[in-house]
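JOB MANIFEST
job_type = single_chain_structure
chain_count = 1
residues = 550
[input]
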Amino acid sequence: MKRKPFGFFLFSVLFSIALFAGYALEKDGYLSVPAPRTLLLFAAAVLLTFFITAFLLRLVHHRLLQEENPAVSKATLPYFLKTYLGLVLTHLPVFLGVYPGFFVYDASDELNAVLTRTFTTHHPLLHVLTMGGTVAGVHKATGSWNAGIAVYIGLQALLILLVYAYVLTFLYQRGVRRSFRILSFFFFGVFPPVVMFTLCSAKDGLFTAFFLLLLVQLLKLLDEGEAFLHKKLDVALFVIGAAGMLFYRRNAVYAFLVFVFFFGLYAIRKFRRQPRELFRLLLLIFLPLLIYEAGNRVLIAATDADDSARQEMLTVPIMQLTRTYAEIPESFSGEEAVLLKKYLPEEALSSYKPRLSDGVKIHFRNDAYHEDPSSFLKLWFSVGKQHPVSYLNAWLLTSYGNWYPFAVINVYEGNTVFTFTYTDSSYFGYEVEAPGVRTSFLPAIDRFYRKLSIERFQQEIPVVSLLFAPAFYVWVLAFCALYVFCFGQQKKRVLFFFLPLFAYFLTLLLGPTYLLRYTLIFFAVTPLLPLVLRTASSSSHPGPSRSGRS
């Protein structure tokens, strides 16, 4: 088939670009015109990657064709309960070791918003109210901030682990091999990047859990077709997963809209002769958006939250203008410099760090932008025409850790937080922000997670470093999508499983920096991938036009 060599070649080119561009950005802090020797090495890398990719894809294909694991028909509730209890027990020692949990990543700001009744939409209001409200409420009852933090993180962990146990039970139902299920259990139960965010107050753990719940239900939908639409529990879990994901990350809304648009077109074509089923399906994918939009409006009105901030959506233009001014200030005319400082005052321009936009965008003048957005955009476009390379470097430096698997995550280098200063690594936040205090009951575990978080040792060990690298999981996901594209008997259907993931990935390329917290979903979805590939390679599944109830 013609799509096979094309797919192999496209993957090889993109992967090689990621390696060479990422290496230059990591080493030099910018891209430049490649030397002839570099171009030759690049061509060799593309060729080598092409043959390795073709070999691995065919190996996976033949392996999957030999798989004959039937779905399990016996009751799964006992399996789910045992799995859930096992996950709780694996997390308990870590929770005691890092007690009261990882209260980090704007946790103090969100708690203060609740305490002072001063809300903005900078952080998801649902998370601010539930996290801040729980911590403040328990503190009021007990007099202990640590107790409040521990209660919230404990409740959050129990909810996240419910989803992980559900995923493992789904693998059991679908006949996935026991050895792989055991590995997946330990992946969810003890692998530090996953455990860190299960026990972290930040929104990322819950966002990942809701996204993962959606993906399980989406895989069921793609496999079962309209029969899925008559299963009330599965439909409810689809809506809960999608709506929860939307409430906990604004950029997920854009990713889900992309999915709804393309999947909606696909559904209209497939179900055009079944209007009742088409209505059910369209209602299923639009309902989470309606719930999010209505719920968010209610939360904004109830809290009188300030919704004027626009710097998050303007992160890339802000960093591009700031980098150009920092490198070539003379390229700005007197009038342009005055206009720039209208939106980005001196404290913003002097705070430029190539890999992190936080120090710059916090000083962005939203009032000036609301008053005259067109002048800002015209200035951005005018400067960009003159300095496209500076703009390219500014953009790539805040995003390359999402696609370069050997990037060392240290974007907070030099930042002083509540209990330490980042020096070698900022892989994870680790600390307990005020008013909480770390009170470890198992100091050895505490030391281990501190070492993982703010030292480089796991990021510099060959092979092992890849297992901790967010970009590695992005490329694993891309490899699996390539397999479906080249070998999938159910290609058109199953590729929709990857659509919300890759749409979300694209939003990360426009984000403020690259951190583990933004890419956790690419770790968490890994246990589902063999089942996705098996579903795609099977020609016996009935597909989305299947009829009947179950």
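[summary]
The CA atoms of residues 277 and 283 lie 10 Å apart.
Residues 36-65 form the longest helix (30 residues).
exit_status = 0
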